[in-house]
Amino acid sequence: MTPFRFRTTISANVSERLGLQKASLMPLVDTSQFGVPPDSQTVGVAFARLCDVIAKLRSPTGCPWDRQQTLETIKPFTLEETYELLEAIDSQDDTAITEELGDVLLQVVLDAQIGRDEGRFDILQVLEVITRKMIDRHPHVFEVEQAHTADDVLRNWDRQKQKEKQRDSIFDGLPSALPALARCSRVAEKAARVGYDFPHRAMLFDKLSEEIKELALELFPGGEIPHIAASVEMAPVPDEPITDAALRDRIEGEFGDVLFVVANLARRWKINPEEALRRSTTKFERRVRFIEEELRQQGRSIREASLQEMEELYQTGKRRES
After folding, report:
1. CA-CA distances (angstroms) from residue 212 to 197, 228, 256, 301?
2. Which parts of the chain have pLDDT scores under 70?
3. pTM greater than 0.90 (yes/no)
4. CA atoms of 192 and 158, how far apart (whole Å)
5. Is the distance from CB of 176 to CB of 268 less than 8 angstroms?
6. Which domains does the chain have, with CATH numbers?
């Protein structure tokens, strides 16, 4: 059976609970050694064996679970394995990265075997299409066209895609199922490639101020944001629900505009907003887990702690990380 696995790691000491890693001692990379392909015969044998294994799993004498899968049912597993690969890359654990790359490759080979079983396509077509695509979209490498910068490469890539796909819009081909923040950044990037962008990236801070003011107009009377210093010393004030459907719709729209500008700020500074948010979320989760563990060692639950106690432990964990 080949569905994905959920893994849980329980750390024993404080540094592990905080998610700290030892300083990397990786040597400087010699880029002159880049681009050496693996031995074709060895890779061919290993890849063919993987294809044989997957084909056996799909055969009448193979695995009932694998035989039941379709391209549609396998989609959630492909997505899950992709996220597990991202986590492994974040961990800088080469063993984990190797395993997760294998799981992603498994999804590709299994999809291709399903396509072959259904008489639609096979792995050879997949390999031929991607190889041809890489050659065609890198004319500065395989032909005579010039590309001196990464931006030149992207422009060549877009021109070739437009010629291949005959698309009507610069946004055609962007997956609608991309996470919203990632898709937002890609949409803005596509527009920027044809020149529709602020001339100077610092202008986005002015645009962000404008969008925050528009949001404040919907959230507070007269658009005046109350000046309340961020602290844990005051009693909690319950959030008032938004009962007006039209107001809720306007507020959602304004929040979206703020997030869109923030994503564009990240893009102009060459930061992946999806990755940045994922890191911050992981960091916050790690620190709250530290609070839980410290309280657990005291024989208490996080639900029993005051806000002030939790904040003190949060700051303790933060200091230990740095």
Report:
1. 20, 17, 11, 38
2. 1-28, 144, 157-166
3. no
4. 12
5. no
6. 42-136 (1.10.287.1080), 193-224+244-321 (1.10.287.1080)
